[in-house]
Amino acid sequence: MRQVLLFLLLSLQLGLRAQSAYSNEFLTIGVGARAHGMGGAVVASVNDVNSAYWNPAGLSHIDAPLQLGAMHAEWFGGVGKFDHISLARRLNADRAAVGSISMVRLAIDQIPNTLNLVAPDGSIVFDNVSEFSSADYGFLISYATAIGEWDEKKSNRLGANVKVIHRQIGPFAKAWGFGIDLGMQWVRGPWQFGLVGQDLSTTFTGWRYSFTEEQKIQLEKTGNIIPVSALEKTLPHLGAGILRRFGKEDAFYCNVELGMNVFFDGKRNTVVASEFASLEPKAGLEAAYKKYVFLRGGYGNIQKIKDELDPLRTNTRGQLYSGVGVRFGRVQIDYALSNIGNLAKELNYSHIFSATLSFTGE
Fold first, then answer.
1. Which end of the chain is more exposed for a tag (fewer CB within 10 A), N or C?
2. CA angle, 227 as apex, 222 and 228 as ends, to 5°?
3. Which residues is 156 bridged to in the sheet?
4. Would you give the DSSP letter of residue 124?
5. Can you give the pLDDT of all 362 residues of the chain as single tens digits?
6. Rounded CA gap, 226 and 218, in Å?
7. Do residues 103 and 84 make contact, with C-beta atoms less than 8 angstroms apart?
């Protein structure tokens, strides 16, 4: 394990040498209604097909030969559609080795293209208005395994992702990017610990634009800047979690998890922020009965908001999350209520649904 930790720290230091811009932010939304219901505090406890996103080491807890997971959510009144699908397969039961492939998609459809709205003679032709979509894709190829001897009460888990990014804005722009994630989990009786390093290689995303000469002329006439090819860099960031279980899983039990995100891409609007690192704490709670019925809550997205009456004063605000889940045999259905990205007084809740199906070998 010392070699693993050394690799994680060295990769993080190498990535910090490059400057970054906020890029690939669609991958920070999160997948799975269970995780959303717990405010994203799941790095230590995630143990199903959604682990590839939160902490790939958690994939090794899957004991089914095959597991399928899917999620759908709509943000901002249905304007943005967010989907996730993942398939995990048990490769070696003795080593708890599991491989998976996952896809995340965020898309905004029916965007008006008004570049040809004004005809050469200056008249407005509404028939020239077309529509296009802006879609972001993230593909994860993952592998996880237990290290050394393991059982349900004591184990060390290790997992990794190879990440491929594809982003497209209609016919105008395309981007490809690549990155690597590495995660670990430790189980010690009722205690569980998790650590994940995302974008450890620094995820580079290269953009290419393809405007026609006529479109470039229209952009210049309307005072728009014609974009050129660009390279975005997503610096490494860490996620950590510690969980304590109360009760037994064959009856009533409760999981309490505290989590922390650590960003190294400049000063963010978080509770603790500096030019070197920004810390984002979160907490989650899950109460369950025999792994059949689940009730969840969470608190996170804590930010400093300027006071409406005194601009020199800031108020610290966070978001509450809630969710439920039920399991019927091999199927688990989860639901979460989230007000993601909105710390204002108005309410703009989104309903998040996800399902997990575990196949048997029979």
1. C
2. 150
3. 186
4. B
5. 444 433 333 333 333 333 444 567 888 888 999 999 999 999 999 999 999 999 999 999 999 999 999 999 877 666 778 899 999 999 999 999 999 999 999 888 767 666 666 666 666 766 666 667 788 999 999 999 999 999 888 999 999 999 999 988 877 788 999 999 999 999 999 999 999 999 998 888 888 887 777 667 666 666 667 667 788 888 899 999 999 999 988 889 999 999 999 998 888 888 888 888 899 999 999 999 988 999 999 998 888 777 777 777 777 888 889 999 999 989 999 999 876 545 444 455 678 999 999 998 65
6. 10
7. yes
Run of H or E including 178: strand 173-188
H helices of the chain, where? Answer: 2-15, 33-37, 51-54, 213-221
Q: What is the spatial distance between Cα 219 and Cα 240, in angstroms, rounded to a whole number? A: 46
Residue range(s) defining the domain that contains residue 292: 2-359
Q: Phi and psi for 253 in degrees, rounded to 5?
A: -150, 165
- Phi-psi category of residue 79: left, alpha or beta, with phi > 0 → left and psi -120 to 50 → alpha: alpha
The separation between CA 52 and the C-alpha centre of its own chain, rounded to angstroms, equals: 10
The number of domains in the chain is 1
The per-residue DSSP string of 132-154 comes to EEEEEEEEEEEEEEE-SS--SSE
Any bridge partners for residue 272, and if so which?
Answer: 279
Q: In angstroms, how far is the first alpha carbon of the chain from the final one? A: 36
Rg (the chain; Cα; Å): 22
Of 302, 295, 298, residue with least CA distance to 271: 302
* Token output for 312: 């020199």
What lies within 8 Å, CB to CB, of 42 at 6+ separation is 32, 34, 35, 54, 55, 241, 257, 259, 284
The residue among 53, 29, 44 whose CA lies nearest residue 286 is 44
- CATH number of the CATH domain containing 281: 2.40.160.40
- Joined together, the tokens standing for residue 231 give 């390279």
- Quote the pTM value: 0.83
